[in-house]
Amino acid sequence: MDKLLVEGGAPLSGSVKVSGAKNAALPLMAAAILADGPLTLTNIPKLGDLRTMGKLLKHMGGEVNLYPESGDGYLEEGVLDMSRLANPEAPHELVKTMRASALVLGPLLARFGQAKVSLPGGCAIGVRPIDMHLKALAAMGAEFDLTGGDVVAKAPKDGLVGVDLRFDSVTVTGTENVMMAAVLAKGRTVIRNAAREPEVSDTARALVAMGAKISGIDSDELIIDGVDSLKAASHSIMPDRVEAGTLLAAVAMAGGRATLKGAKLNDLAVVMGKFTEAGVFLRAENGDLTIEAHRGLLSAVNVTTGPYPGFPTDMQAQFLALMCTSKGTSIITETIFENRFMHVAELKRLGADVTLEGRTAVVKGVERLSGAPMTASDLRASASLLLAAMAAKGTSEISRVYHLDRGYDRLDDKLNSLGAKIKRVKAS
Ligand code: EPZ
Asked: Model confidence over 89-114: pLDDT tens digits?
């Protein structure tokens, strides 16, 4: 397993382009199952979870071309053709490495009338059940048999039926799963208390381009009128707001002045507000975001995570790292996942002063962190450790960086292009 060796203290400068969004690309790839022809994607990020989803779609009999054969560089456009899908199954060995595989359930039921999807296990940040997905799909007529760790699903013989449903609580992939099931169902589906995350909207827009009838996009009430089939289409994946926020946090924490290119700033409004409140200087110009900060001169700010448009849980670990060297005490409350403070124990190895009380972290800013060996536990935690190591005095080593590579497109290379001193040591 690769490690990252980080020499702390380097200020950042220059500019970097934000990649396509992992959490839009994953549902978009699942949406390809619904179409009679190819779905062409552009602005594809290069990261592990998309490779896993690609393997899954190939396992089903689809054609997937997202990356160059050689493995280096990028394709201008990637093509997913699921018209010859023959095997509506998502086996455990693939699902266990990526829970978002559950996103194929709705599309398989809609297109194929059946599915066998390994029940996604939990992960470091929580149990991550899909009960709300299954309850909503059952309301559309699907029947489920949970045997041997698999969800064996069947749609009624003449297809799923549109339904008016309300999610008890906001679920991003639950909304995406049901939306994708509804586009080919009989009649109208109304999804109330729908997730409003931009990635849900990006998926909805691609489905409309494929011929789906969806209204209420960007709102918490989606109305989908089923159609007979979806056709080939092209779609550009939206920029990754969590990568952009992570790069923003890196400049804020290490200090310096740098520009993010290609981020969709509307998606980052609440996040940018919190960084500004902490004393980071932000300037948005023609879609570029310039960040300027002086290491260690920021003020503590309180944050509570919540569904969009609230402060994203996927930015909590990165912001908590920033608060470790800000002046004062910050209260950070995680309302979405039950175990998303795995980064705290590792940050304390660098000298951070953080006390956990259930879903709340009390962060007392210290003058400076000091480098130490750390172990990554989950995707956003690994980013948080990297940011802290870049600001710390001395060198740090971060192991298990496969967590980082699952969800970021070459984050270490991007940070090095801004002046960070990160060396990747390939597993021996
Ligand atoms: C999506 O996960 C994202 N993943 C996550 O990003 C993100 O943290 C999360 O939404 C919240 O924004 C993708 O889009 C691929 P949820 P998802 O269903 O859909 C509970 C990252 O770092 N719940 O909105 O799985 C659940 O346990 C990842 O990129 C149920 O109880 O999250 C959680 O506590 C991490 N039953 C809460 O709801 C269900 O049926 C929100 O989960 C579904 C969810």
From this structure: 999 998 888 889 999 999 999 999 99
Return the closest-CA partner of residue 295 out of 16, 13, 15: 13
What are the start-end ranges of the H helices in 37-159? 48-59, 92-95, 105-112, 131-139
**pTM (two decimals):** 0.97
Supply the DSSP symbol for 101.
G
Q: Which of 119, 123, 165, 212 is catalytic?
A: 123
Would you report the helix, strand and coil content of the chain in percent, each value rounded to 5? Answer: 35, 30, 40
> How large is the greatest C-alpha to C-alpha distance in the chain, in angstroms?
66
C-alpha of residue 307 to centroid of ligand 1, in Å = 10
Query: Residues lining ligand 1, judged by CB closer than 6 Å?
Result: 23, 26, 100, 126, 128-133, 169-174, 199, 313-314, 336-337, 379-380, 407
Residue 129 Cα, ligand 1 centroid: separation in angstroms?
9
Which of 128, 167, 176, 340 has the most ligand 1 atoms within 8 A of CB, as the residue to mutate? 128
Condensed to tens digits (0 to 9), the pLDDT of residues 36-91 reads 999 999 999 999 999 999 999 999 999 999 998 887 888 889 999 999 998 999 99
User: What was the pLDDT predicted at 341?
Assistant: 96
| Alpha-carbon gap, residue 114 to 159, rounded angstroms | 10
